[in-house]
Amino acid sequence: MQHAVGAPLPPPHGPGIGHVGRPYQAQHPGHPGPPPISPPPGQALPAPGQAPPPPAQGRPQQPPAPPAPGQAPQPGWSGTGPTPPPAGQATGHTGHVQLPPGGPVPLPAPPAEAGTGGATLAVLLIGPAGAGKTTVAKLWAARRRVPTAHVSLDDVREWVRSGFADPQAGWNDHSEAQYRLARRTCGFAARNFLANGISCILDDAVFPDRPVVGLGGWKRHVGPGLLPVVLLPGLEIVLERNAARSGNRRLSDEEVARIHGRMAGWYGSGLPIIDNSTYDVETTARVLDDVLARSIASPPAW
Q1: Which of 24, 91, 133, 212 is 20 to 30 A from residue 165's alpha carbon, by CA?
Q2: What pLDDT digit, counting tens, does each position of 72-89 carry?
């Protein structure tokens, strides 16, 4: 519908819009009208032309705030609602522990009791395939009375499921890159464990005559406080233990003999060596703890 220029527009539709001052019954003939407005208790209706007072009395009462850390609760505090954190504890966290940045592991302080006691350590257990590194490291970590973690480099390498470069298929640039990545990952894990008061023992078949898989990388990724120990039983024992393995962890006898021969280069290196040819796992773990205690008192030069 069109309107002539200058003609007044009809009032807009909607309750009360454009009808200021007109009674409700005039706008809605025959309707009984809205119910009368009752003022809040203790408050009178405003006079004509005056603005109503703010509805302060009608606002809901806010419950008392929870007490701040170390302070007494306010009157009326019922103990419900968010529980305040203990004094000295930061707020705004979801319950997860924020890890401090990992740094080079320093040399541990000498223990005040037999063995390593409650010292926080970073240990590298070295040995050929079949020496029992993983089994001994797991038992040593489990028997300590302080939190201790075990990280096996072989396990970390095999986290790669598709595209895994197995060194048994030939040592090449691809397998070397995955080895370096796994070693760096293990070093990062060890630093974070120690930064949170948890000791860590790592195991790897480190060669004394090959820098690529040598101690230098471990020292660079973990720090000078890393304590290396060599586990080196006789060749017959290594061959026997390797024969009991399965999957890609089992090597040929020729490969085992070759690795074992190269490990003999650790003699004369200054690193502590444990010949566990006649030891069971528990005895080897106990000897390892004694050797580590001596290493703490007199760290090996490496």
Answers
A1: 133
A2: 556 655 555 544 545 544
